[in-house]
Amino acid sequence: MMIDRGVLEWLVTYLRDTQQQQQQQQHQQPFYPSSYGLEYATALFMNLCLHRSGKDRCLPQAAAVLDLFCSLLLGAVGDGGNAQV
């Protein structure tokens, strides 16, 4: 039901917005969402993608999603940010 209602797409938008806010504020005060929020969003995305219909919904944007998660991971490691991702 969550997959049919577009939660995967919403999570990608949420995580992309989070990443963009982090990049825009690099030279200012860093922006990090709560550890719980970021961890929950990435875990929910992963769990929804385990379902066959989730994989089918994610497939058209797979390259963009992979880039997004790689960027979030590199930002978390490189900037001393949130390692919960």
Strand-helix topology:
Blueprint lengths: L6 H18 L10 H16 L1 H7 L3 H17 L7
CA distance, first residue to last residue: 25 Å
Number of helices: 4
- Largest beta-sheet characterization: none
- The count of strands amounts to 0
Compute the average pLDDT.
Answer: 80
Which structural class do the helices and strands define?
mainly alpha
β-strand amount: under 5%
Radius of gyration: 13 Å
Q: What string gives the helices and strands in order?
A: HHHH
State the helicity in percent bands: 55-70%
Enumerate the spans where pLDDT stays under 50 for 5 or more consecutive residues. Answer: none
Based on CA inertia axes, which overall geometry fits? globular
Tally of domains: 1
Please give the oligomerization state of what you see.
single chain
